[in-house]
Design brief:
The protein is mainly β. Helices cover 0% and strands 54% of the residues.
Length: 118
Amino acid sequence: QRQLVESGGGLVQPGGSLRLSCVASLSPFRLYTMRWYRQSPGNQRELVASIASSESPDYADSVKGRFIISRDNSKKTVYLQMNSLKPEDTAVYYCYAVLTDINRINFWGKGTLVTVSS
């Protein structure tokens, strides 16, 4: 069973917006910290945003003010709203779940490609 399934990637022009979704078949979902990572060719995997069980969000400096992470525990879904997209945002975006304070219990999605280009 695929525990994490991302969707919402695609091609968008600079300045545009996309919303990524990740549906998590995990229980109890509310106890998982959910994160979005991204990776582009030649770069290390980068933590983009994180939202804990407490719903306190955290962002990479490169996306602060442009991206918003949120979660809907009733739907077991985490979102990444991406605004004012730049070409350097182009990457495969991965959903990641980790049981809060228990790092060995974690899951990765297969990723969804976001391409920002004119």
